[in-house]
Amino acid sequence: MPAPSSTVPLPEVRTMKAIVQSEYGSPDVLSLAEVERPLVPDDGVLVKVHAASVDAGVWHLMRGTPFLIRLVFGGLSKPKHAILGSAIAGRVEAVGTAVTQFQPGDEVFGDLSESGFGGFAEYACAPEEALAPKPGNLSFEAAATLPVSGLAALQALRDVGQLQAGQKVLVLGASGGVGSFAVQIAKALGADVTGVASTHKVEMVAKLGADYVIDYTQTDVTLAGKQYDLILDAAAFRPFSAYLPILTPTGTYVAVGGSTGDFLRAMVLGSFASKAAGKQVKSLESKPNQADLMTLKELAEAGKLIPFIDRTFSLGEVPTAICYLEDRSVKGKVTIRV
Ligand SMILES: NC(=O)c1ccc[n+]([C@@H]2O[C@H](COP(=O)([O-])OP(=O)(O)OC[C@H]3O[C@@H](n4cnc5c(N)ncnc54)[C@H](OP(=O)(O)O)[C@@H]3O)[C@@H](O)[C@H]2O)c1
User: Fold this and answer.
1) How far is the centre of ligand 1, averaged over its atoms, from the C-alpha of 48 (Å)?
2) Domains of the chain, each with CATH number or no CATH
3) How high is the pLDDT of residue 271?
4) Ligand 1 pocket: which of 178, 199, 217, 231 to mutate (most atoms within 8 A of CB)
5) Rounded to whole angstroms, how far apart are CA atoms 52 and 288?
6) Looking at ligand 1, which atom is closest to the CA of residue 216?
7) What local confidence, expressed as pLDDT, does residue 288 receive?
């Protein structure tokens, strides 16, 4: 075998920094590491990630709880995907030969939750349907807040809840990631919006544009004497049956998140309860898609959707950012600057 020639060029370094995880657990299982950059398949877009955001799904996947999440995303005993992070914004670095919508240099944002995650890294690869052009008026950090939480809010109100202009909407968990977008999207769709939050987040929910804000530590919304056409519950910590009396006779309750037990109860028992009560009890299973990313972009560019960013962390601080979210201190969204 000939000896290696000293004139053969060394292969280009193709590594990147990423937050990796090899087991389920607390934020201690996450570490910053040098890993291989994703390869670009024919139908893939390689994005240089400028920002990502953290949502409740991130810490569920990190901890592997509730157990159901392991069945849905794979990895019964250890995570199938080493790099977490679904919501990103960045610049296209390279595209596969079959990609038609994007080219290197384009600014994009997107949702990687159906394409293997990988957002907490310097580069991420996604099919083009998972991405859309970044709203022109938003920074990378602000754009990275929209996928996942914004999509969930939009689909819960418009598709599951069938919201019509003029209806009365109640948003539970109005100060959180999903809730802060739900308040604004419901207003943009012409609803009369009441947001529910804990005391120190009341002012923030009012600033989002809610017509009324209820501090749930002071007032039990189910006893406040008002009825709603649509209840979006992003903080389901009470059984859905508690809210049936404050739904109008044709009203709809949509479970989005909260405690696993209460969410599953709404999912499984909802349709029976709907028939019995004459009211609709539904649950959201959000689906990322490009058309809805475009809707969020249009709302943002029209000034109807303004992300509320609580804090921004560096890539190495992802574990701290997740602790901050789990703590329930966050108002709106937490972002990662990569
Ligand atoms: N079904 C789907 O497809 C889908 C999609 C996306 C997200 N989700 C789920 O939606 C939920 C919300 O997500 P997120 O990203 O908005 O989370 P988040 O940013 O952590 O917000 C959750 C909000 O719930 C409120 N909250 C927490 N504990 C509460 C309690 N015991 N009683 C009343 N309110 C409470 C908190 O506000 P206060 O401090 O004001 O209480 C917080 O603002 C999560 O469970 C997530 O997994 C579901």
Assistant:
1) 29
2) 15-145+307-337 (3.90.180.10), 148-283 (3.40.50.720)
3) 78
4) 178
5) 16
6) 33
7) 96
Q: What's the gap between Cα 34 and its chain centre?
A: 26
pTM above 0.90, yes or no: yes
CA 337 to ligand 1 centroid distance, Å = 23
Which residue has a Cα nearest atom 42 of ligand 1?
176
Task: Say how many residues make up the chain.
Answer: 338
Query: For 22-47, how does the pLDDT look when each residue is reduced to its tens digit (9 = 90+)?
Result: 999 999 999 999 999 999 999 999 99
Cis peptide before 66 (omega within 30 of 0): yes
Residue among 168, 195, 191 nearest 180 (CA): 195
Region 308-314: what's the mean pLDDT? Answer: 98
Specify the DSSP class assigned to residue 324. H
Token duo for residue 316: 């190495």
Bridge partners (DSSP) of residue 45 are: 95, 126
- Between the alpha carbon of residue 92 and those of residues 122, 124, 172, 200, 325, the distances in Å are 12, 10, 37, 39, 29
Other C-beta atoms lying within 10 Å of the C-beta of residue 23: 12
Per-residue pLDDT of 71-108, as tens digits, reads: 887 788 899 999 999 999 999 999 999 999 999 999 99
Candidate from 148, 181, 183, 328 with most ligand 1 atoms within 8 A of CB, to mutate: 328
**How much is the pLDDT for 304?**
97
